[in-house]
Structure to design on (184 residues):
């Protein structure tokens, strides 16, 4: 059932990416250049609604907070994120949009996906030699959330209920999406 649900959710996510234009790298590049913010509006609204719904459903007991997976924060995550961001800006794809664009028939996405797989292979091959380096020094204690609805993870703001903070942030993201102009 878990695999079936993952496939269904993946198809729905890919459909949504295709419908908002995220499979066209020019739309992503235009968003990053701030010349067409329609895609940014869709992303902000999706983050806002999903964050609000996730924490609301956790509060109502529909979703068990124990199913959340919080990855440790490392310095290498910042370095890797910067590399991903650079590739995102140059190619106009991120991992999710590239796979959806590939399914959409875009040949340039094949090059991006291939490059990502080569990068993953290189990381796998060099991991043994870098695992003890500064790249794996934890940030803020490792597995930490801003606020949480779970006793499983440490919160940076333990005095603020996770549902309240997530709702405020989620609503802020939706308001930003609503108020953003089409271009700057």
């Amino acid at each position: 059932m878990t695999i079936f649900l993952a496939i269904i959710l993946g198809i729905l996510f890919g459909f949504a990416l295709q419908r908002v234009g995220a499979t066209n790298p020019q739309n992503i590049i235009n968003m990053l250049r701030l010349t067409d913010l329609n895609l940014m509006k869709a992303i902000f609204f999706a983050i806002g609604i999903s964050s609000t719904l996730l924490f609301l459903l956790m509060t109502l007991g529909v979703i068990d907070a124990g199913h959340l997976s919080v990855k440790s924060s490392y310095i290498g995550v910042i370095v890797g994120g910067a590399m991903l961001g650079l590739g995102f800006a140059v190619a106009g794809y991120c991992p999710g949009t590239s796979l959806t664009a590939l399914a959409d028939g875009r040949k340039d996405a094949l090059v991006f996906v291939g490059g990502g797989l080569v990068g993953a292979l290189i990381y796998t091959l060099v991991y043994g030699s870098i695992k003890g380096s500064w790249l794996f020094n934890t940030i803020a204690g490792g597995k930490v959330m801003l606020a949480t609805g779970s006793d499983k993870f440490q919160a940076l703001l333990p005095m603020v209920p996770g549902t309240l903070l997530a709702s405020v942030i989620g609503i802020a993201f939706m308001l930003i999406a609503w108020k953003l102009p089409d271009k700057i």
Notes: The first helix runs from residue 2 to 19. DSSP finds seven helices and two strands in the chain. The mean pLDDT is 87.
